[in-house]
Write a sequence for this structure.
Protein backbone atom coordinates (compact mmCIF):
# COMPACT_ATOMS: atom_id res chain seq x y z
CA UNK A 1 0.00 0.00 0.00
CA UNK A 2 1.30 3.44 -0.85
CA UNK A 3 1.77 5.95 1.93
CA UNK A 4 -0.98 8.06 0.42
CA UNK A 5 -3.39 5.13 0.74
CA UNK A 6 -6.98 5.14 -0.37
CA UNK A 7 -9.82 7.33 0.75
CA UNK A 8 -11.84 6.76 2.77
CA UNK A 9 -9.29 4.98 4.91
CA UNK A 10 -10.20 1.83 6.82
CA UNK A 11 -8.50 2.40 10.18
CA UNK A 12 -9.11 -1.23 11.24
CA UNK A 13 -7.05 -2.66 8.36
CA UNK A 14 -4.44 0.11 8.22
CA UNK A 15 -0.91 -1.07 7.46
CA UNK A 16 1.52 1.82 8.02
CA UNK A 17 4.89 1.92 6.27
CA UNK A 18 7.95 0.35 7.88
CA UNK A 19 9.77 3.67 7.79
CA UNK A 20 9.42 5.89 10.88
CA UNK A 21 7.57 8.63 9.00
CA UNK A 22 4.05 8.39 10.43
CA UNK A 23 2.01 8.81 13.59
CA UNK A 24 -1.27 7.14 14.53
CA UNK A 25 -3.77 8.04 17.25
CA UNK A 26 -6.65 5.61 17.81
CA UNK A 27 -9.42 5.26 20.37
CA UNK A 28 -8.54 3.07 23.36
CA UNK A 29 -9.54 -0.52 22.56
CA UNK A 30 -10.01 0.13 18.82
CA UNK A 31 -9.37 -3.08 16.87
CA UNK A 32 -6.74 -2.30 14.25
CA UNK A 33 -3.90 -4.12 12.53
CA UNK A 34 -1.72 -1.09 13.27
CA UNK A 35 -0.49 -0.23 16.74
CA UNK A 36 -1.38 3.27 17.87
CA UNK A 37 1.28 5.66 19.13
CA UNK A 38 -1.35 7.48 21.18
CA UNK A 39 -4.90 6.82 22.33
CA UNK A 40 -7.74 9.28 21.97
CA UNK A 41 -10.44 9.92 24.55
CA UNK A 42 -14.16 10.32 23.95
CA UNK A 43 -15.75 13.76 24.03
CA UNK A 44 -19.33 14.83 24.76
CA UNK A 45 -20.49 15.80 21.26
CA UNK A 46 -21.78 14.12 18.13
CA UNK A 47 -19.26 12.57 15.75
CA UNK A 48 -20.17 15.16 13.08
CA UNK A 49 -19.45 18.03 15.49
CA UNK A 50 -16.17 16.39 16.61
CA UNK A 51 -15.01 16.00 13.01
CA UNK A 52 -15.95 19.60 12.18
CA UNK A 53 -13.97 20.85 15.19
CA UNK A 54 -10.89 18.78 14.34
CA UNK A 55 -11.08 19.77 10.66
CA UNK A 56 -11.25 23.48 11.55
CA UNK A 57 -8.23 23.14 13.83
CA UNK A 58 -6.26 21.24 11.18
CA UNK A 59 -7.12 23.72 8.43
CA UNK A 60 -5.95 26.62 10.60
CA UNK A 61 -2.40 25.23 10.34
CA UNK A 62 -0.21 26.83 7.67
CA UNK A 63 -0.02 25.26 4.20
CA UNK A 64 -2.90 22.86 4.94
CA UNK A 65 -5.78 22.10 2.61
CA UNK A 66 -8.76 19.78 2.53
CA UNK A 67 -8.38 17.07 -0.11
CA UNK A 68 -11.41 14.84 0.46
CA UNK A 69 -14.37 14.49 2.76
CA UNK A 70 -16.71 11.51 3.00
CA UNK A 71 -19.13 10.79 5.81
CA UNK A 72 -17.28 11.18 9.08
CA UNK A 73 -13.78 11.18 7.57
CA UNK A 74 -11.56 13.91 6.12
CA UNK A 75 -8.26 13.80 4.30
CA UNK A 76 -5.97 16.81 4.39
CA UNK A 77 -2.56 17.68 3.01
CA UNK A 78 0.05 19.84 4.64
CA UNK A 79 3.20 20.97 2.86
CA UNK A 80 6.48 21.59 4.64
CA UNK A 81 7.63 25.20 4.78
CA UNK A 82 11.09 24.83 3.28
CA UNK A 83 10.99 22.04 0.68
CA UNK A 84 7.25 21.73 0.10
CA UNK A 85 7.09 18.02 0.94
CA UNK A 86 3.50 16.82 1.25
CA UNK A 87 2.17 14.97 4.29
CA UNK A 88 -1.29 13.39 4.40
CA UNK A 89 -3.55 13.60 7.45
CA UNK A 90 -6.65 11.42 7.69
CA UNK A 91 -9.09 11.91 10.56
CA UNK A 92 -12.28 10.03 11.35
CA UNK A 93 -14.87 10.69 14.05
CA UNK A 94 -16.57 7.62 15.49
CA UNK A 95 -19.54 7.21 17.79
CA UNK A 96 -18.59 6.38 21.37
CA UNK A 97 -22.10 6.27 22.80
CA UNK A 98 -25.10 8.61 22.67
CA UNK A 99 -23.84 12.11 21.79
CA UNK A 100 -20.26 11.01 22.38
CA UNK A 101 -17.48 10.80 19.83
CA UNK A 102 -13.88 9.72 19.56
CA UNK A 103 -11.27 10.46 16.88
CA UNK A 104 -8.82 8.38 14.88
CA UNK A 105 -6.01 10.39 13.25
CA UNK A 106 -3.27 9.14 10.92
CA UNK A 107 -0.56 11.49 9.65
CA UNK A 108 2.22 10.37 7.33
CA UNK A 109 4.97 11.69 5.10
CA UNK A 110 4.58 10.76 1.45
CA UNK A 111 8.31 10.82 0.71
CA UNK A 112 11.45 10.13 2.72
CA UNK A 113 12.48 7.67 5.35
CA UNK A 114 12.30 9.69 8.57
CA UNK A 115 10.03 12.64 9.39
CA UNK A 116 11.96 14.13 12.36
CA UNK A 117 8.84 13.83 14.53
CA UNK A 118 6.77 16.18 12.37
CA UNK A 119 3.77 13.84 12.19
CA UNK A 120 3.81 13.20 15.95
CA UNK A 121 3.89 16.94 16.64
CA UNK A 122 1.12 17.61 14.13
CA UNK A 123 -1.25 15.01 15.60
CA UNK A 124 -0.55 15.77 19.26
CA UNK A 125 -0.83 19.53 18.66
CA UNK A 126 -4.12 19.04 16.80
CA UNK A 127 -5.57 16.73 19.45
CA UNK A 128 -4.42 19.02 22.27
CA UNK A 129 -6.21 21.95 20.60
CA UNK A 130 -9.27 19.77 19.97
CA UNK A 131 -9.60 18.77 23.63
CA UNK A 132 -8.76 22.31 24.87
CA UNK A 133 -11.58 23.75 22.73
CA UNK A 134 -14.00 21.40 24.48
CA UNK A 135 -12.82 22.44 27.95
CA UNK A 136 -13.13 26.13 27.08
CA UNK A 137 -16.89 25.87 26.53
Amino acid sequence: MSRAGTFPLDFSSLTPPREPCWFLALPEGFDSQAEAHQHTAPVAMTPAHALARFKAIALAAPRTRLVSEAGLQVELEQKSAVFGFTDKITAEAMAAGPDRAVLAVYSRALVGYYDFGVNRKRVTRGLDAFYAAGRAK
